[in-house]
Structures are given as structure tokens and as C-alpha cells.
């Protein structure tokens, strides 16, 4: 398989554009926001089945964490690596890289996920002000209101954003691996918050709902503000990074031999764009200089030495003087 040819670019160009999928993204964002609103109403109304589920799961996992010291240490390590500060740092690094290569709108979209997510989380916690679980012998401590879980929300936003950045340039196996890792990391971070006794299960669920609403809503807002800019930046990131990857990896990976008579295949449009306009101009100037030098050398030679050379086959131009 070619290092940078998956998926097929022609098939990618035939897919619906991001702007054409806006109604779907808007529906997903509104659906997640509606589920968050329903969950918030149940939490504020102290609905019996939800309260029973929260206390039952939280108590069982807390007792397990208190008895197993190694288990608790592993949970604390995972929850630290999946914390909001680490997740937002990853998004900041991704946004800085996108900005550096010229994908400015995509960089703004990535940074907006972190900033909007932080603002929405802070506002929701301030409005709901739900107390955290209280235990006689806590295994972990956390400050601030409980609903929604900031760890769960930040992990879900970061995982979704990074998968969205990788998705257009990955083939099917890579997409499956990325989605699996993103889902497992999001679930694992949410589980640690419940097992350490610092959140109720409904807090984690609310963080996930709100994360989907933030990612979908931010995408719709930026696409409506600058239609087509995100899709153009995705293509720009692709072909700008391909020559660098090929220059590093191509010497170490031999290309398969081509049999005699086997077609080379059609070059994609992105392969043609990989050569910049400056390179093409320099190549044309170099070719013109070589042709001019060869013509001057031929004109300086005696006529008897040029008897066997072919005539100049350039078409006759009446505007050109003899």
C-alpha cells in the first residue's frame, strides 16, 4: 500500500461536503443537548430510580477502591492522564501545529473545542451546583460542584476532535483503531471518576452528553460562519504533509517492482498539487536556459559540422525576425 494514498482521493472528493452534512451535525448536537436537559431535570428533581442507580454504583466501586490499594493507584494515574489540563494541552498543541502549516480555520475549530468546552462546563457547574459524593474514608479528593464531570467532558471532546482530524486521511483499519481507542479512553476516564468516589454516574453521563453538544455545535457555528473553510483546510493539511512524510519514509520502504506492460495508474489531483508553483517556475526557467545555451552553441559551430543535425522543428512564426 502506498504510504499516503489511503483513502482514495477521488472517492474522497465524491463524498458529501461538510456543508451538506450540516443538518446531520445540528441534529446530533441538539439531540445531545436535549438528553443533557432531560438528565439535568432528573438530577434536579431527585428522581428515585436515578438516585438509586447513582448511590448503588458509586458505593460499590468506592468500596472496591478502598480495599484494593494497587487498583486505587492505577485509577488515580489514569484520571490524572485524562484530566482536563492534559486534554486541553493536547488540543492546544494540535491547534498550534495546524496554524503553523496554514490551516487557520481548522486550527480555530480545534482551539474552540477546548475553550467552548471549558466555558460550558464552568457555567453548567455553577448553575447546577450539585454536591459531590461524601465518604467516611475517601480515596481521592476533588473540589467544586459535581455535575457535569469535567474529566469526562474534556476526555470526550478531545477524543472526538482528534479522531475528526485523523478521519479524512485514514483508511478503514486506521479509522477503526482510532475510534476504538477514543471510545475506550473516554469510557475509562469516566469510570475512574466514579470508582474514586468523586462523581456520581449521572455526572459522567452528563459530561458525555454535553461534550457531544459542544463538538457538534462548534462545528455547525464555524461552518456557517465560513462555509467550506474547514473542508479546504482538511485538504490543505493532507497535501502539505504528504511530501514531508514521503521524504522521511520513502528511503526506508522499497517500492514494489512494476512488471513490463503494467500500467502506472492515474496520478491523483493531490499528487499534481504536491509540487509548488515556485518549484514549477524554477524548473521551467532552468529548462529554458538549457535550451537557449544549446541553441547558442549550435549557432556558433561551422556549417559543415551541422550538416547531419536535424532541422529546428519549431513552427514558423511570421512575427519572429529571420
From TrEMBL:
CDD domains: PAP2_like_2. One of its GO terms (molecular function) is undecaprenyl-diphosphatase activity. The chain crosses the membrane at residues 22-43, 78-99, 106-128, 148-167, 174-196, 208-225. Its EC number is 3.6.1.27. Residues 106-219 form the Phosphatidic acid phosphatase type 2/haloperoxidase domain. Residues 268-322 have a biased composition (Basic and acidic residues). It holds the Pfam family PAP2. This is Undecaprenyl-diphosphatase. It comes from Kitasatospora kifunensis.
Amino acid at each position: 500500500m502506498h504510504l499516503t494514498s489511503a483513502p482514495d482521493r477521488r472517492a474522497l472528493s465524491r463524498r458529501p461536503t461538510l456543508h451538506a452534512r450540516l443538518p446531520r451535525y445540528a441534529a446530533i448536537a441538539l439531540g445531545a443537548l436535549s438528553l443533557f436537559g432531560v438528565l439535568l431535570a432528573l438530577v434536579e428533581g431527585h428522581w428515585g430510580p436515578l438516585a438509586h442507580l447513582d448511590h448503588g454504583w458509586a458505593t460499590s466501586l468506592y468500596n472496591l477502591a478502598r480495599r484494593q490499594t494497587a487498583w486505587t493507584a492505577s485509577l488515580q494515574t489514569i484520571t490524572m492522564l485524562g484530566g482536563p489540563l492534559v486534554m486541553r494541552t493536547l488540543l492546544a498543541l494540535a491547534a498550534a501545529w495546524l496554524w503553523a502549516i496554514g490551516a487557520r480555520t481548522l486550527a480555530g475549530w480545534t482551539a474552540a473545542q477546548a475553550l467552548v468546552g471549558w466555558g460550558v462546563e464552568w457555567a453548567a457547574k455553577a448553575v447546577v451546583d450539585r454536591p459531590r459524593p461524601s465518604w467516611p474514608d475517601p480515596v481521592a479528593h476533588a473540589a467544586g460542584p459535581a455535575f457535569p464531570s469535567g474529566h469526562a467532558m474534556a476526555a470526550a471532546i478531545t477524543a472526538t476532535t482528534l479522531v475528526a482530524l485523523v478521519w479524512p486521511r485514514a483508511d478503514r483499519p486506521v479509522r477503526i483503531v482510532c475510534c476504538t481507542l477514543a471510545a475506550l479512553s473516554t469510557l475509562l476516564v469516566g469510570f475512574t471518576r466514579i470508582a474514586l468516589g468523586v462523581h456520581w454516574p449521572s455526572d459522567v453521563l452528563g459530561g458525555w452528553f454535553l461534550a457531544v453538544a459542544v463538538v457538534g455545535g462548534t462545528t455547525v457555528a464555524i461552518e456557517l460562519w465560513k462555509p467550506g473553510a474547514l473542508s479546504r483546510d482538511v485538504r490543505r493539511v493532507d497535501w502539505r504533509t504528504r511530501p514531508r512524510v514521503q521524504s522521511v519514509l520513502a528511503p526506508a520502504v522499497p517500492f514494489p517492482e512494476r512488471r513490463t506492460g503494467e500500467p502506472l495508474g492515474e496520478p491523483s489531483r493531490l499528487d499534481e498539487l504536491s509540487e509548488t508553483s515556485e518549484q514549477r517556475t524554477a524548473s521551467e526557467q532552468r529548462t529554458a536556459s538549457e535550451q537557449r545555451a544549446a541553441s547558442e552553441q549550435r549557432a556558433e559551430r561551422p556549417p559543415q559540422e551541422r550538416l547531419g543535425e536535424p532541422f529546428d522543428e519549431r513552427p514558423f512564426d511570421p512575427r519572429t525576425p529571420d
